[in-house]
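Q: Can someone sanity-check these two? First one:
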Amino acid sequence: MIHHLPPPTGTYFLSLDRFSPYINDPAVYGISDLEPAPSYACAFPSSADLRSLAYQFTGKYDCAKAAHPELSDRLEHACREWRDSWKAGSPAPALSLVPGDDAYYSLMDTRGLEDTDMF
């Protein structure tokens, strides 16, 4: 596992932003019905060309997060546990080499992985 790295903030759907390949060539990525995010209609007059003004877009695409919400829930739960293990005040999980005597090193693993030993 990679719990010695900082955790993600969560799990999210794909962000469809202007100047990205998803907007420049949506069909290549299986994206259809590309439209400016709904909030732009509230911010600009009805006569505005929202497609040329918008930075964020919505669209339809195949997505495991939507197709398998039970897996998405499990992943979100794992991310939450990972974030909890990094809360302020507790040392961050680490995988590191610690110099010892006579040019020997100890491998320190404080990631809390199951079925691991310290050598």
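And here is the second, same format, sequence then tokens:
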Amino acid sequence: MKVTKKKRPAKLEGVLLLIRKNAEEGNYTSTLHSGERQGERKITILEALSILRNGYREESKDEFKTEYSAWNYAMRGKTIDARELRVVVSFDAEGMLIITAIELGVGNGKKNR
């Protein structure tokens, strides 16, 4: 019996504008994971939203999640106090989901750029 792999869907067209629009209009849901990680990492929702509205796409960090059959999209930018953050979002039938937020260059051996 031949097993056929399910083809992964293409990334969303115009995802940068979609992310910015949803962040600007408040059309998002923070996942439980995101809330927990933001609390642990001392990243506020306002900082995360600022990255989504003003940051840049970090396509090399996009990741397809087979368990959800969905793409996670990475945004990167700096807060007003110059902390470098990555915010990861996804989309489902309900809209945009904030998956997680990470401060870069803290305890991971990488320097901020």
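A (reply): Looked at the second one. The chain has three helices and six strands. The first strand starts at residue 28 and ends at 30.
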